[in-house]
Structures are given as structure tokens and as C-alpha cells.
């Protein structure tokens, strides 16, 4: 499955685009800090922390 197809499938399950990118990074690297997630995905730190919190609320992280 291509990266785009994988991210599209995550979005189909109700994740936002940023949440999908973060989820993919966590699957690839395992445990990461918010700073590391932001650096890996290119998402700002504040958005990364917000999306991480949302993933936790959804039971995905």
C-alpha cells in the first residue's frame, strides 16, 4: 500500500490529515516526544501537541 493510500485510509477512520501523519510517524518510530513528532512530520510543535492530544482522546495513541 502506498503512503498516500495508507494516509487516506487513516482519514477514512476519522483522523485528520495531521493526526494521520503523526500516527504514521509513531508506527514507524515507536515512542516519540511531541518535539520529535513535530520535527519528523514538519508540523509545528503547537499543532503536533494538539493532534497528539486528540489521538490520545480517540484512543489511537
Describe the structure.
With 61 residues, the chain is an all-alpha fold. It has one domain. The protein has helices at residues 3-12, 17-29, 34-41, 45-57. Helix 1 (3-12) crosses helix 2 and helix 3 packs across helix 4 (45-57). The termini are far apart.
Draw up the topology in text.
Blueprint: H1 3-12, H2 17-29, H3 34-41, H4 45-57
Radius of gyration: 11 Å
How many helices? The count is 4
Question: How much helix, percentage-wise, in residues?
Answer: over 70%
Strand content: under 5%
Helix vs. strand class: mainly alpha
Give the distance, in angstroms, between the N- and C-terminal Cα atoms: 22 Å
**String of helices and strands:** HHHH
How many discrete structural domains? 1
Molecular shape: globular
What is the total tally of β strands?
Answer: 0
Spans of 5+ residues with little confidence (pLDDT < 50)? Answer: none
Outline of the structure:
By secondary structure, the protein is an all-alpha fold. Helix content is 72%, strand content 0%.
What are its keywords?
mainly alpha
Amino acid at each position: 500500500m502506498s503512503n498516500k493510500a495508507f494516509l487516506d485510509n487513516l482519514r477514512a477512520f476519522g483522523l485528520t490529515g495531521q493526526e494521520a501523519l503523526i500516527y504514521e510517524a509513531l508506527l514507524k518510530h515507536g515512542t516519540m516526544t511531541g518535539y520529535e513528532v513535530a520535527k519528523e512530520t514538519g508540523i509545528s510543535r503547537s499543532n503536533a501537541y494538539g493532534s497528539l492530544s486528540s489521538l490520545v482522546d480517540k484512543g489511537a495513541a
